[in-house]
Design a protein that fits this description.
It contains two helices and nine strands, in the order E-E-E-E-E-E-E-E-H-E-H. It is α+β, with helices and mostly antiparallel strands. The protein is 15% helix and 34% strand. The protein is globular.
Length: 183
Amino acid sequence: MGGKNGTRNGLANPSRLKAFDADDKHMLRVVIETPKGSRNKFAFNAEDHIFELKKVLPAGMAFPYDFGFVPSTEADDGDPVDVLVLMDEPAFPGCALTCRPVGVIEGEQVGKKRKVRNDRIVAVEQDAHSWADIKTLDDLGKHFLKELEEFFVEYHRLSDKEYRVLGAKGPSRARKLVKVSMK
C-alpha cells in the first residue's frame, strides 16, 4: 500500500499522541497495550503501526490490571514509559485513556549482559469509580503494592530476566519520569 511519495497509509500511530492531557497537565495520556485479565502480552510496533502479540503468559498468570505506555516518551530501556492502569473494566489494545498518576514503582531489569532501569507508573483512569479516592500509592496499601511489585518480578522471570524493585515513589516522581522521557 503505497501512499503519496512512497509513504504507507497504515493505522494511526498512537505512540505520537501527546504525553500529557491538553486540559490538565497533571493527567497523563496512556495507550493500552494489554488489557486486564489477559494472558496475551501485546505491544505496539511503531514501525508497522500495529499491535503485536509478544508472548503468552502461562496458565494461572494474567495481567492484573490494564498495561500500556505514555505516548511520545522513551524510557531507559528504549521503550515508551510503562503504565499500569487501575480502572473499573478492562480496556482494549489501542485504547487511549486519560489517567491520574498515583506513583511509580522504580526498578531495574537485569539481563544476561546489562542492567537497565525499567520503572512502571501506576495510574488511575480519570473516570474510574472504584479507584476515585486513590491519590498516591500509599492509598493502595502495602499488601496491594507488594502484589504489583511481585507481578513484575515474576513476569520478568518468565523471560529469564531478573527484575529488582528499587522503591516506590509518589505522583510527582511519576510526572517527572514522563517529563524527562519525552521525545
